[in-house]
Design goal:
about 600 residues; alpha+beta; Trna Endonuclease, Chain: A, domain 1; 4 domains
Length: about 600
Protein backbone atom coordinates (compact mmCIF):
# COMPACT_ATOMS: atom_id res chain seq x y z
CA UNK A 1 0.00 0.00 0.00
CA UNK A 2 1.53 3.36 -0.98
CA UNK A 3 2.21 5.97 1.68
CA UNK A 4 4.70 6.82 4.38
CA UNK A 5 5.09 4.22 7.19
CA UNK A 6 4.42 6.80 9.93
CA UNK A 7 1.21 7.96 8.21
CA UNK A 8 -0.11 4.41 8.08
CA UNK A 9 0.16 3.99 11.85
CA UNK A 10 -2.88 6.21 12.39
CA UNK A 11 -5.07 3.33 11.15
CA UNK A 12 -4.14 1.39 14.30
CA UNK A 13 -5.85 3.90 16.60
CA UNK A 14 -8.87 1.62 17.13
CA UNK A 15 -6.77 -1.32 18.26
CA UNK A 16 -6.15 -2.47 21.83
CA UNK A 17 -3.71 -4.96 23.31
CA UNK A 18 -6.35 -7.67 23.74
CA UNK A 19 -7.45 -7.62 20.10
CA UNK A 20 -3.90 -7.24 18.75
CA UNK A 21 -3.22 -10.89 19.55
CA UNK A 22 -6.24 -12.04 17.52
CA UNK A 23 -5.33 -9.73 14.64
CA UNK A 24 -1.87 -11.30 14.39
CA UNK A 25 -3.41 -14.80 14.57
CA UNK A 26 -5.71 -13.88 11.67
CA UNK A 27 -2.77 -12.52 9.66
CA UNK A 28 -0.88 -15.77 10.19
CA UNK A 29 -3.91 -17.79 9.05
CA UNK A 30 -5.06 -15.71 6.09
CA UNK A 31 -1.96 -13.92 4.80
CA UNK A 32 0.75 -16.48 5.59
CA UNK A 33 -1.48 -19.58 5.27
CA UNK A 34 -0.43 -21.01 8.63
CA UNK A 35 -2.43 -23.92 10.00
CA UNK A 36 -3.31 -25.08 13.52
CA UNK A 37 -3.01 -21.53 14.85
CA UNK A 38 -3.24 -21.65 18.66
CA UNK A 39 -3.16 -18.71 21.04
CA UNK A 40 -1.50 -19.08 24.45
CA UNK A 41 -1.80 -16.29 26.99
CA UNK A 42 1.49 -14.76 28.11
CA UNK A 43 2.42 -12.37 30.87
CA UNK A 44 3.36 -8.71 30.90
CA UNK A 45 2.04 -5.69 29.07
CA UNK A 46 0.30 -7.21 26.09
CA UNK A 47 2.84 -9.89 25.17
CA UNK A 48 1.25 -13.07 23.84
CA UNK A 49 2.57 -16.23 22.22
CA UNK A 50 1.00 -17.93 19.21
CA UNK A 51 1.86 -21.44 18.06
CA UNK A 52 1.24 -22.35 14.41
CA UNK A 53 2.41 -24.55 11.53
CA UNK A 54 3.61 -22.90 8.32
CA UNK A 55 3.03 -24.06 4.72
CA UNK A 56 6.08 -26.33 4.86
CA UNK A 57 5.00 -28.10 8.05
CA UNK A 58 7.40 -26.20 10.34
CA UNK A 59 6.33 -25.35 13.87
CA UNK A 60 6.36 -21.58 14.38
CA UNK A 61 6.28 -19.43 17.54
CA UNK A 62 5.02 -15.86 17.21
CA UNK A 63 5.46 -13.26 19.92
CA UNK A 64 3.23 -10.17 19.97
CA UNK A 65 4.25 -6.87 21.55
CA UNK A 66 1.58 -4.18 21.70
CA UNK A 67 2.35 -0.50 22.33
CA UNK A 68 -0.33 2.18 22.51
CA UNK A 69 2.39 4.54 21.30
CA UNK A 70 2.74 3.25 17.76
CA UNK A 71 5.98 5.17 17.28
CA UNK A 72 7.64 3.32 20.15
CA UNK A 73 10.59 1.16 19.15
CA UNK A 74 11.09 -2.39 20.44
CA UNK A 75 14.68 -3.10 21.43
CA UNK A 76 16.89 -6.15 21.70
CA UNK A 77 15.58 -7.07 25.15
CA UNK A 78 12.11 -7.66 23.71
CA UNK A 79 13.17 -9.39 20.49
CA UNK A 80 15.52 -11.73 22.38
CA UNK A 81 12.52 -13.27 24.16
CA UNK A 82 11.35 -15.00 20.97
CA UNK A 83 14.70 -16.83 20.77
CA UNK A 84 14.30 -17.97 24.38
CA UNK A 85 10.89 -19.38 23.51
CA UNK A 86 12.24 -21.14 20.42
CA UNK A 87 15.01 -22.76 22.45
CA UNK A 88 12.54 -23.82 25.10
CA UNK A 89 10.29 -25.67 22.64
CA UNK A 90 13.02 -26.83 20.24
CA UNK A 91 11.72 -24.88 17.22
CA UNK A 92 13.70 -22.75 14.80
CA UNK A 93 10.97 -20.67 13.09
CA UNK A 94 9.90 -17.44 14.80
CA UNK A 95 7.90 -14.24 14.27
CA UNK A 96 8.09 -11.04 16.28
CA UNK A 97 5.09 -8.75 15.75
CA UNK A 98 4.71 -5.27 17.21
CA UNK A 99 2.22 -2.47 16.80
CA UNK A 100 5.19 -0.10 16.90
CA UNK A 101 8.59 -0.29 15.27
CA UNK A 102 11.86 -2.19 15.39
CA UNK A 103 15.09 -0.22 15.50
CA UNK A 104 17.63 -0.87 12.71
CA UNK A 105 20.04 -2.17 15.33
CA UNK A 106 17.42 -4.62 16.65
CA UNK A 107 16.79 -5.90 13.14
CA UNK A 108 20.50 -6.48 12.51
CA UNK A 109 20.97 -8.23 15.84
CA UNK A 110 17.77 -10.18 15.31
CA UNK A 111 19.17 -11.66 12.10
CA UNK A 112 22.93 -11.71 12.74
CA UNK A 113 23.03 -13.10 16.25
CA UNK A 114 20.78 -16.09 15.66
CA UNK A 115 21.75 -17.56 12.30
CA UNK A 116 20.55 -21.03 13.33
CA UNK A 117 16.99 -19.69 13.45
CA UNK A 118 14.63 -18.46 10.74
CA UNK A 119 13.34 -15.19 12.19
CA UNK A 120 10.85 -12.71 10.76
CA UNK A 121 9.10 -9.62 12.04
CA UNK A 122 6.09 -7.42 11.40
CA UNK A 123 6.00 -3.75 12.33
CA UNK A 124 2.88 -1.66 12.74
CA UNK A 125 2.93 -0.13 9.25
CA UNK A 126 3.42 -3.61 7.67
CA UNK A 127 0.41 -4.91 9.57
CA UNK A 128 -1.63 -2.02 8.17
CA UNK A 129 -0.53 -2.93 4.61
CA UNK A 130 -1.50 -6.57 5.06
CA UNK A 131 -4.95 -5.80 6.48
CA UNK A 132 -5.89 -3.20 3.87
CA UNK A 133 -4.67 -5.27 0.93
CA UNK A 134 -6.57 -8.42 1.95
CA UNK A 135 -10.34 -8.42 1.37
CA UNK A 136 -11.01 -10.97 4.13
CA UNK A 137 -9.00 -9.12 6.76
CA UNK A 138 -10.63 -5.85 5.69
CA UNK A 139 -14.08 -7.36 6.24
CA UNK A 140 -13.17 -8.47 9.74
CA UNK A 141 -10.82 -5.74 10.93
CA UNK A 142 -11.30 -2.49 8.99
CA UNK A 143 -14.15 -0.01 9.40
CA UNK A 144 -14.46 3.80 9.47
CA UNK A 145 -10.80 4.30 8.53
CA UNK A 146 -9.66 2.29 11.57
CA UNK A 147 -8.28 -1.18 12.16
CA UNK A 148 -10.21 -2.75 14.99
CA UNK A 149 -12.34 -5.82 15.66
CA UNK A 150 -15.63 -4.68 14.14
CA UNK A 151 -19.07 -5.92 15.12
CA UNK A 152 -19.24 -8.68 12.55
CA UNK A 153 -21.08 -11.94 11.96
CA UNK A 154 -19.77 -15.13 10.39
CA UNK A 155 -21.89 -18.19 9.63
CA UNK A 156 -20.52 -21.72 9.48
CA UNK A 157 -22.95 -24.17 7.79
CA UNK A 158 -22.69 -27.82 8.82
CA UNK A 159 -24.53 -31.10 8.46
CA UNK A 160 -24.82 -34.09 10.79
CA UNK A 161 -24.99 -37.63 9.44
CA UNK A 162 -25.39 -40.91 11.27
CA UNK A 163 -23.24 -43.61 9.69
CA UNK A 164 -23.04 -46.27 8.36
CA UNK A 165 -26.84 -45.85 8.00
CA UNK A 166 -26.11 -42.56 6.17
CA UNK A 167 -29.14 -40.70 7.46
CA UNK A 168 -29.62 -37.21 8.88
CA UNK A 169 -28.89 -37.03 12.58
CA UNK A 170 -31.26 -34.90 14.60
CA UNK A 171 -29.39 -33.19 17.43
CA UNK A 172 -30.64 -30.30 19.54
CA UNK A 173 -27.89 -27.82 20.38
CA UNK A 174 -28.19 -25.12 23.03
CA UNK A 175 -29.59 -22.02 21.32
CA UNK A 176 -26.56 -19.94 22.33
CA UNK A 177 -23.01 -20.72 23.37
CA UNK A 178 -20.33 -18.29 24.53
CA UNK A 179 -16.66 -19.09 24.36
CA UNK A 180 -13.22 -17.48 23.88
CA UNK A 181 -13.05 -13.66 23.83
CA UNK A 182 -16.80 -13.47 24.62
CA UNK A 183 -17.78 -14.62 21.14
CA UNK A 184 -21.45 -15.62 20.97
CA UNK A 185 -22.43 -18.68 18.92
CA UNK A 186 -26.06 -19.11 17.82
CA UNK A 187 -27.03 -22.44 16.21
CA UNK A 188 -30.14 -22.91 14.06
CA UNK A 189 -31.32 -26.30 12.83
CA UNK A 190 -33.25 -27.49 9.75
CA UNK A 191 -31.61 -24.93 7.48
CA UNK A 192 -31.23 -25.39 3.74
CA UNK A 193 -27.55 -25.31 2.70
CA UNK A 194 -26.34 -24.86 -0.86
CA UNK A 195 -24.34 -28.05 -1.70
CA UNK A 196 -21.55 -25.87 -3.09
CA UNK A 197 -20.86 -24.68 0.47
CA UNK A 198 -20.15 -28.32 1.41
CA UNK A 199 -18.31 -29.40 -1.74
CA UNK A 200 -17.36 -32.15 -2.36
CA UNK A 201 -20.56 -33.43 -0.77
CA UNK A 202 -21.69 -37.03 -0.63
CA UNK A 203 -25.39 -36.40 -1.28
CA UNK A 204 -28.00 -38.31 0.63
CA UNK A 205 -30.19 -40.76 -1.22
CA UNK A 206 -33.30 -38.82 -2.28
CA UNK A 207 -35.44 -41.16 -0.15
CA UNK A 208 -33.49 -40.06 2.93
CA UNK A 209 -32.96 -36.41 2.04
CA UNK A 210 -36.60 -35.31 2.24
CA UNK A 211 -38.00 -32.36 0.31
CA UNK A 212 -34.86 -30.22 0.25
CA UNK A 213 -35.11 -28.93 -3.35
CA UNK A 214 -31.56 -30.04 -4.16
CA UNK A 215 -30.12 -28.48 -1.00
CA UNK A 216 -28.61 -30.18 2.01
CA UNK A 217 -30.44 -29.97 5.34
CA UNK A 218 -28.32 -28.98 8.29
CA UNK A 219 -27.40 -26.28 10.79
CA UNK A 220 -26.21 -22.68 10.67
CA UNK A 221 -23.71 -21.71 13.38
CA UNK A 222 -23.49 -17.92 13.46
CA UNK A 223 -20.70 -16.20 15.39
CA UNK A 224 -21.44 -12.73 16.77
CA UNK A 225 -19.59 -10.11 18.85
CA UNK A 226 -15.79 -9.85 18.80
CA UNK A 227 -15.63 -12.26 15.87
CA UNK A 228 -12.28 -12.82 14.19
CA UNK A 229 -11.03 -15.40 11.72
CA UNK A 230 -9.52 -17.46 14.53
CA UNK A 231 -13.01 -17.72 16.10
CA UNK A 232 -14.12 -20.13 13.36
CA UNK A 233 -11.85 -22.95 14.53
CA UNK A 234 -12.92 -22.35 18.11
CA UNK A 235 -16.58 -22.51 17.10
CA UNK A 236 -16.00 -25.85 15.41
CA UNK A 237 -14.27 -27.16 18.51
CA UNK A 238 -17.20 -26.01 20.64
CA UNK A 239 -19.71 -27.78 18.39
CA UNK A 240 -17.67 -31.00 18.30
CA UNK A 241 -17.11 -31.03 22.06
CA UNK A 242 -20.79 -30.33 22.75
CA UNK A 243 -21.80 -33.50 20.91
CA UNK A 244 -18.89 -35.63 22.08
CA UNK A 245 -19.43 -34.74 25.75
CA UNK A 246 -23.18 -35.28 25.66
CA UNK A 247 -23.64 -38.23 28.02
CA UNK A 248 -27.29 -38.59 27.07
CA UNK A 249 -26.54 -39.28 23.43
CA UNK A 250 -27.03 -43.01 22.86
CA UNK A 251 -25.60 -44.35 19.61
CA UNK A 252 -24.95 -48.05 19.27
CA UNK A 253 -22.98 -49.49 16.35
CA UNK A 254 -22.94 -46.10 14.62
CA UNK A 255 -20.94 -42.89 14.56
CA UNK A 256 -21.61 -39.25 13.75
CA UNK A 257 -20.01 -37.41 10.83
CA UNK A 258 -20.01 -33.62 11.00
CA UNK A 259 -19.22 -31.83 7.77
CA UNK A 260 -18.43 -28.14 8.20
CA UNK A 261 -19.00 -26.09 5.08
CA UNK A 262 -17.34 -22.92 3.80
CA UNK A 263 -17.93 -20.05 6.25
CA UNK A 264 -19.38 -16.79 4.95
CA UNK A 265 -20.57 -13.33 5.97
CA UNK A 266 -24.36 -13.74 6.38
CA UNK A 267 -25.09 -10.04 5.82
CA UNK A 268 -24.76 -10.67 2.09
CA UNK A 269 -26.71 -13.92 2.06
CA UNK A 270 -30.03 -12.29 1.14
CA UNK A 271 -28.54 -10.81 -2.01
CA UNK A 272 -27.01 -14.15 -3.01
CA UNK A 273 -28.40 -14.03 -6.53
CA UNK A 274 -26.74 -10.68 -7.16
CA UNK A 275 -23.27 -11.76 -6.07
CA UNK A 276 -20.85 -14.28 -7.44
CA UNK A 277 -20.57 -17.34 -5.23
CA UNK A 278 -17.05 -16.54 -4.03
CA UNK A 279 -17.68 -12.96 -2.93
CA UNK A 280 -18.96 -13.57 0.59
CA UNK A 281 -17.04 -16.79 1.31
CA UNK A 282 -14.08 -17.08 3.63
CA UNK A 283 -10.98 -19.00 2.46
CA UNK A 284 -11.63 -22.15 4.51
CA UNK A 285 -12.35 -25.46 2.79
CA UNK A 286 -15.07 -27.84 3.88
CA UNK A 287 -13.92 -30.49 6.34
CA UNK A 288 -15.45 -33.49 8.09
CA UNK A 289 -14.93 -34.85 11.59
CA UNK A 290 -15.92 -38.23 12.97
CA UNK A 291 -17.34 -38.68 16.48
CA UNK A 292 -17.35 -42.24 17.76
CA UNK A 293 -18.16 -42.77 21.43
CA UNK A 294 -15.93 -40.25 23.23
CA UNK A 295 -13.35 -39.64 20.48
CA UNK A 296 -13.10 -37.01 17.75
CA UNK A 297 -10.96 -37.38 14.65
CA UNK A 298 -10.64 -35.86 11.21
CA UNK A 299 -12.18 -37.88 8.41
CA UNK A 300 -8.81 -38.19 6.66
CA UNK A 301 -7.34 -39.87 9.76
CA UNK A 302 -10.40 -42.11 10.03
CA UNK A 303 -9.76 -43.36 6.51
CA UNK A 304 -5.98 -43.51 6.17
CA UNK A 305 -4.27 -43.59 9.57
CA UNK A 306 -2.34 -46.76 10.58
CA UNK A 307 -0.23 -47.77 13.56
CA UNK A 308 3.56 -47.92 13.78
CA UNK A 309 3.66 -51.57 12.66
CA UNK A 310 2.74 -50.48 9.14
CA UNK A 311 5.22 -48.53 7.02
CA UNK A 312 5.16 -47.15 3.51
CA UNK A 313 7.89 -48.51 1.17
CA UNK A 314 11.39 -47.22 1.82
CA UNK A 315 11.73 -46.53 -1.89
CA UNK A 316 9.22 -46.58 -4.73
CA UNK A 317 9.35 -44.97 -8.17
CA UNK A 318 6.58 -42.78 -9.56
CA UNK A 319 5.82 -45.44 -12.19
CA UNK A 320 5.26 -48.00 -9.41
CA UNK A 321 2.69 -46.06 -7.36
CA UNK A 322 -0.07 -48.41 -8.44
CA UNK A 323 1.60 -50.91 -6.06
CA UNK A 324 1.84 -48.45 -3.16
CA UNK A 325 1.00 -50.25 0.05
CA UNK A 326 1.76 -50.47 3.75
CA UNK A 327 4.23 -53.13 4.85
CA UNK A 328 4.31 -55.03 8.13
CA UNK A 329 7.92 -56.15 8.53
CA UNK A 330 7.31 -58.35 11.56
CA UNK A 331 4.67 -60.44 9.79
CA UNK A 332 6.01 -59.95 6.25
CA UNK A 333 2.80 -59.07 4.44
CA UNK A 334 1.38 -55.93 2.89
CA UNK A 335 -1.87 -54.02 3.19
CA UNK A 336 -3.71 -52.17 0.43
CA UNK A 337 -6.54 -49.80 1.28
CA UNK A 338 -9.10 -48.90 -1.38
CA UNK A 339 -12.17 -46.69 -1.27
CA UNK A 340 -14.99 -46.82 -3.82
CA UNK A 341 -17.60 -44.13 -4.45
CA UNK A 342 -20.11 -42.98 -7.04
CA UNK A 343 -18.65 -41.00 -9.92
CA UNK A 344 -19.19 -37.24 -9.76
CA UNK A 345 -18.82 -35.53 -13.15
CA UNK A 346 -17.15 -32.48 -11.61
CA UNK A 347 -14.77 -34.44 -9.40
CA UNK A 348 -14.03 -37.40 -11.68
CA UNK A 349 -14.14 -36.11 -15.29
CA UNK A 350 -11.57 -38.74 -16.32
CA UNK A 351 -14.06 -41.55 -15.59
CA UNK A 352 -16.68 -40.05 -17.88
CA UNK A 353 -14.03 -39.47 -20.55
CA UNK A 354 -12.86 -43.08 -20.29
CA UNK A 355 -16.43 -44.25 -20.68
CA UNK A 356 -16.85 -42.16 -23.84
CA UNK A 357 -13.59 -43.60 -25.19
CA UNK A 358 -14.88 -47.09 -24.43
CA UNK A 359 -18.12 -46.36 -26.33
CA UNK A 360 -16.08 -45.39 -29.39
CA UNK A 361 -14.13 -48.66 -29.14
CA UNK A 362 -17.34 -50.67 -28.80
CA UNK A 363 -18.92 -48.88 -31.76
CA UNK A 364 -16.12 -50.33 -33.92
CA UNK A 365 -16.31 -53.78 -32.33
CA UNK A 366 -18.33 -56.81 -33.39
CA UNK A 367 -21.18 -58.55 -31.51
CA UNK A 368 -22.96 -61.71 -32.69
CA UNK A 369 -25.80 -63.80 -31.23
CA UNK A 370 -24.84 -67.44 -31.65
CA UNK A 371 -26.34 -70.77 -30.64
CA UNK A 372 -24.56 -72.57 -27.83
CA UNK A 373 -23.73 -75.53 -30.09
CA UNK A 374 -22.11 -73.41 -32.83
CA UNK A 375 -18.72 -72.85 -31.18
CA UNK A 376 -16.93 -74.63 -34.02
CA UNK A 377 -17.95 -71.87 -36.43
CA UNK A 378 -15.52 -69.47 -34.79
CA UNK A 379 -12.81 -71.91 -33.83
CA UNK A 380 -10.26 -69.85 -35.79
CA UNK A 381 -11.65 -66.51 -34.52
CA UNK A 382 -11.97 -66.92 -30.77
CA UNK A 383 -14.09 -64.08 -29.23
CA UNK A 384 -12.71 -61.83 -26.51
CA UNK A 385 -15.80 -62.32 -24.34
CA UNK A 386 -18.84 -64.57 -24.23
CA UNK A 387 -22.10 -63.98 -22.29
CA UNK A 388 -25.27 -65.98 -21.78
CA UNK A 389 -28.26 -64.54 -23.65
CA UNK A 390 -31.01 -67.16 -23.60
CA UNK A 391 -31.03 -70.81 -22.59
CA UNK A 392 -29.95 -71.75 -26.12
CA UNK A 393 -27.96 -68.72 -27.26
CA UNK A 394 -25.06 -66.56 -26.19
CA UNK A 395 -23.47 -63.27 -27.10
CA UNK A 396 -19.99 -63.36 -28.66
CA UNK A 397 -17.88 -60.21 -28.50
CA UNK A 398 -14.83 -59.22 -30.53
CA UNK A 399 -13.57 -55.95 -29.04
CA UNK A 400 -11.59 -53.51 -31.18
CA UNK A 401 -7.98 -53.23 -29.90
CA UNK A 402 -7.23 -50.16 -27.80
CA UNK A 403 -4.08 -48.22 -28.71
CA UNK A 404 -1.44 -47.90 -26.01
CA UNK A 405 -1.24 -44.13 -26.50
CA UNK A 406 -4.22 -42.11 -27.67
CA UNK A 407 -5.54 -38.52 -27.55
CA UNK A 408 -7.83 -37.49 -24.70
CA UNK A 409 -10.27 -35.72 -27.05
CA UNK A 410 -13.03 -38.20 -27.89
CA UNK A 411 -13.68 -36.92 -31.43
CA UNK A 412 -9.99 -36.97 -32.28
CA UNK A 413 -9.70 -40.46 -30.82
CA UNK A 414 -12.59 -41.71 -32.96
CA UNK A 415 -11.01 -40.32 -36.13
CA UNK A 416 -7.65 -41.95 -35.38
CA UNK A 417 -8.93 -45.34 -34.19
CA UNK A 418 -7.90 -47.76 -36.95
CA UNK A 419 -6.56 -51.30 -36.82
CA UNK A 420 -6.14 -53.02 -40.21
CA UNK A 421 -5.67 -56.54 -38.85
CA UNK A 422 -8.84 -56.29 -36.77
CA UNK A 423 -10.83 -54.95 -39.75
CA UNK A 424 -9.73 -57.93 -41.86
CA UNK A 425 -10.65 -60.33 -39.04
CA UNK A 426 -13.96 -58.55 -38.57
CA UNK A 427 -14.94 -59.04 -42.25
CA UNK A 428 -14.15 -62.76 -42.09
CA UNK A 429 -16.26 -63.19 -38.94
CA UNK A 430 -19.15 -61.24 -40.47
CA UNK A 431 -19.05 -63.44 -43.60
CA UNK A 432 -19.13 -66.56 -41.41
CA UNK A 433 -22.08 -65.16 -39.43
CA UNK A 434 -24.05 -64.32 -42.58
CA UNK A 435 -23.45 -67.75 -44.14
CA UNK A 436 -24.90 -69.33 -41.00
CA UNK A 437 -27.76 -66.80 -40.59
CA UNK A 438 -26.49 -65.51 -37.25
CA UNK A 439 -27.69 -62.18 -35.91
CA UNK A 440 -25.17 -59.31 -35.83
CA UNK A 441 -26.19 -56.65 -33.31
CA UNK A 442 -24.96 -53.15 -32.50
CA UNK A 443 -22.92 -52.27 -29.43
CA UNK A 444 -25.82 -50.64 -27.58
CA UNK A 445 -27.95 -53.79 -27.66
CA UNK A 446 -24.88 -55.85 -26.76
CA UNK A 447 -24.22 -53.68 -23.69
CA UNK A 448 -27.79 -54.25 -22.48
CA UNK A 449 -27.43 -58.02 -22.86
CA UNK A 450 -24.17 -57.93 -20.93
CA UNK A 451 -25.84 -55.83 -18.23
CA UNK A 452 -28.28 -58.71 -17.67
CA UNK A 453 -25.21 -60.76 -16.70
CA UNK A 454 -24.43 -58.18 -13.96
CA UNK A 455 -21.43 -56.88 -15.86
CA UNK A 456 -22.76 -53.61 -17.28
CA UNK A 457 -20.02 -52.00 -19.41
CA UNK A 458 -21.72 -48.59 -19.24
CA UNK A 459 -23.48 -48.42 -15.87
CA UNK A 460 -26.04 -45.72 -15.21
CA UNK A 461 -24.34 -44.86 -11.92
CA UNK A 462 -20.65 -45.62 -12.50
CA UNK A 463 -18.28 -45.98 -9.59
CA UNK A 464 -14.62 -45.15 -9.20
CA UNK A 465 -12.02 -46.66 -6.88
CA UNK A 466 -9.36 -44.71 -5.04
CA UNK A 467 -6.15 -46.67 -4.54
CA UNK A 468 -3.91 -45.87 -1.60
CA UNK A 469 -1.89 -43.39 -3.68
CA UNK A 470 -5.12 -41.71 -4.84
CA UNK A 471 -6.33 -41.28 -1.26
CA UNK A 472 -3.04 -39.60 -0.36
CA UNK A 473 -2.97 -37.30 -3.37
CA UNK A 474 -6.66 -36.69 -4.13
CA UNK A 475 -8.47 -36.99 -0.82
CA UNK A 476 -10.01 -33.57 -1.44
CA UNK A 477 -11.95 -35.06 -4.39
CA UNK A 478 -13.64 -37.80 -2.34
CA UNK A 479 -17.29 -36.84 -1.66
CA UNK A 480 -17.85 -36.46 2.07
CA UNK A 481 -19.01 -37.78 4.48
CA UNK A 482 -17.48 -41.04 3.31
CA UNK A 483 -19.44 -44.30 3.39
CA UNK A 484 -17.43 -46.55 5.73
CA UNK A 485 -18.69 -49.72 4.03
CA UNK A 486 -17.00 -48.63 0.78
CA UNK A 487 -13.54 -49.31 2.17
CA UNK A 488 -11.69 -52.44 1.14
CA UNK A 489 -9.00 -54.01 3.35
CA UNK A 490 -6.71 -56.12 1.18
CA UNK A 491 -3.79 -58.08 2.64
CA UNK A 492 -1.22 -59.93 0.56
CA UNK A 493 1.53 -62.36 1.50
CA UNK A 494 4.02 -63.87 -0.96
CA UNK A 495 5.49 -67.34 -0.53
CA UNK A 496 8.51 -68.75 -2.37
CA UNK A 497 7.47 -72.36 -2.89
CA UNK A 498 9.77 -74.15 -5.38
CA UNK A 499 12.35 -74.11 -8.13
CA UNK A 500 11.82 -74.99 -11.80
CA UNK A 501 13.99 -78.10 -11.55
CA UNK A 502 11.25 -79.98 -9.71
CA UNK A 503 10.06 -82.60 -12.24
CA UNK A 504 6.69 -83.00 -10.49
CA UNK A 505 6.09 -79.24 -10.33
CA UNK A 506 2.88 -79.14 -12.42
CA UNK A 507 1.30 -82.04 -10.54
CA UNK A 508 2.20 -80.47 -7.19
CA UNK A 509 0.76 -77.10 -8.22
CA UNK A 510 -2.51 -78.77 -9.28
CA UNK A 511 -2.69 -80.62 -5.96
CA UNK A 512 -1.91 -77.46 -4.01
CA UNK A 513 -4.58 -75.54 -5.92
CA UNK A 514 -7.19 -78.14 -4.95
CA UNK A 515 -6.15 -77.99 -1.29
CA UNK A 516 -6.25 -74.21 -1.17
CA UNK A 517 -9.68 -74.10 -2.82
CA UNK A 518 -11.05 -76.39 -0.11
CA UNK A 519 -9.91 -74.12 2.75
CA UNK A 520 -11.70 -70.85 3.43
CA UNK A 521 -8.74 -68.82 4.61
CA UNK A 522 -7.88 -66.58 1.65
CA UNK A 523 -9.78 -65.07 -1.26
CA UNK A 524 -7.38 -65.28 -4.18
CA UNK A 525 -4.15 -67.08 -5.14
CA UNK A 526 -1.81 -66.31 -8.00
CA UNK A 527 1.15 -68.46 -8.99
CA UNK A 528 4.04 -66.46 -10.45
CA UNK A 529 6.91 -68.06 -12.30
CA UNK A 530 10.22 -66.24 -12.61
CA UNK A 531 11.91 -67.49 -15.79
CA UNK A 532 14.63 -64.88 -15.98
CA UNK A 533 16.15 -64.13 -12.55
CA UNK A 534 16.20 -67.04 -10.12
CA UNK A 535 13.91 -69.72 -11.67
CA UNK A 536 11.62 -69.64 -8.65
CA UNK A 537 7.91 -70.27 -8.23
CA UNK A 538 5.96 -67.83 -6.05
CA UNK A 539 2.47 -67.89 -4.64
CA UNK A 540 0.76 -64.54 -3.96
CA UNK A 541 -2.08 -64.99 -1.46
CA UNK A 542 -4.69 -62.23 -1.05
CA UNK A 543 -7.02 -61.97 1.92
CA UNK A 544 -9.88 -59.45 2.11
CA UNK A 545 -11.61 -59.90 5.49
CA UNK A 546 -14.82 -58.26 6.69
CA UNK A 547 -14.34 -55.36 9.10
CA UNK A 548 -16.19 -53.20 11.62
CA UNK A 549 -17.87 -50.32 9.76
CA UNK A 550 -17.89 -48.07 12.82
CA UNK A 551 -14.17 -48.32 13.45
CA UNK A 552 -11.42 -46.33 11.81
CA UNK A 553 -8.92 -48.00 9.51
CA UNK A 554 -6.38 -47.85 12.35
CA UNK A 555 -8.69 -49.59 14.85
CA UNK A 556 -9.69 -52.20 12.29
CA UNK A 557 -6.05 -52.97 11.53
CA UNK A 558 -5.35 -53.47 15.23
CA UNK A 559 -8.12 -56.07 15.30
CA UNK A 560 -7.58 -57.70 11.91
CA UNK A 561 -3.81 -58.16 12.06
CA UNK A 562 -4.06 -61.32 14.20
CA UNK A 563 -6.83 -62.75 12.02
CA UNK A 564 -4.85 -62.07 8.84
CA UNK A 565 -1.69 -63.53 10.32
CA UNK A 566 -3.62 -66.69 11.26
CA UNK A 567 -5.02 -66.93 7.71
CA UNK A 568 -1.57 -66.72 6.15
CA UNK A 569 -0.19 -69.21 8.70
CA UNK A 570 -2.86 -71.72 7.62
CA UNK A 571 -1.99 -71.06 3.98
CA UNK A 572 1.69 -71.61 4.72
CA UNK A 573 1.00 -74.92 6.47
CA UNK A 574 -1.00 -76.17 3.49
CA UNK A 575 1.73 -75.16 1.06
CA UNK A 576 4.44 -76.87 3.12
CA UNK A 577 2.55 -80.15 2.89
CA UNK A 578 3.33 -80.09 -0.82
CA UNK A 579 6.43 -77.86 -0.90
CA UNK A 580 8.32 -78.37 2.40
CA UNK A 581 10.92 -75.67 1.66
CA UNK A 582 8.32 -72.89 1.38
CA UNK A 583 9.28 -69.55 2.99
CA UNK A 584 7.60 -66.17 3.27
CA UNK A 585 9.10 -63.92 0.66
CA UNK A 586 7.01 -60.74 0.49
CA UNK A 587 9.77 -58.19 1.09
CA UNK A 588 12.26 -59.96 -1.21
CA UNK A 589 9.63 -60.54 -3.90
CA UNK A 590 8.70 -56.86 -3.98
CA UNK A 591 12.36 -55.97 -4.50
CA UNK A 592 13.38 -58.74 -6.93
CA UNK A 593 10.25 -58.83 -9.08
CA UNK A 594 8.73 -55.35 -8.73
CA UNK A 595 11.81 -53.26 -7.94
CA UNK A 596 10.24 -51.78 -4.80
CA UNK A 597 12.08 -51.52 -1.49
CA UNK A 598 9.47 -52.31 1.15
CA UNK A 599 12.13 -52.40 3.84
CA UNK A 600 15.86 -52.11 3.38
CA UNK A 601 17.64 -54.52 5.71
Amino acid sequence: MPGKPNDKLQYLNGLNEKDFLFLVADILSIHYNHKIVKIVDGTGDGRRDIFSVDQHGNNVITQCKFHFDFNKTSGSRETDEIVIALNKFGYNQGFFCTSGKLSPQSKREYLDNYKNFSLNWLEGHEIVDIVLENSILRNIWFENERIHLINNRITVPFILRKLPEDILYDYKFPSHLTFMNEVSLAIEKDKLINPRQLRPLNHLDIRKAGNSFGNAIGHHATLEQNVNFHSIDKAKEEILNTICNDKEMQIEKSFIAIRFGIPYFPEQEESFRNFKFEKFNLPINSETYIIYKDSIMEEYDFLIDVNEDWKLPDRIHMSQLNDLCYYNQQQDFVFYLEYTCMVNKDLHPHVERQMEIKKVIWSKSLFIISENKSDDLFFDYQPDESYTYTSNTKLLCWIHPTPVIYPTDVNEFENLLKHEEFEVLKKEIINTAKRNSLEIIDWEKASKIIAINNDAPFPKDPRTTYRLVDIFEKFYTIPSPINPENRSFNFECVFKIAEHEDELLNEKIDTLGDLLDSVDNSDYYNFTIDDETNNSIFLRALYTPPYDLCLSTLDNLNILSKEVEYSFEMTEKIIKNIFPKTVRYTNDYWFEELGIFLKRD
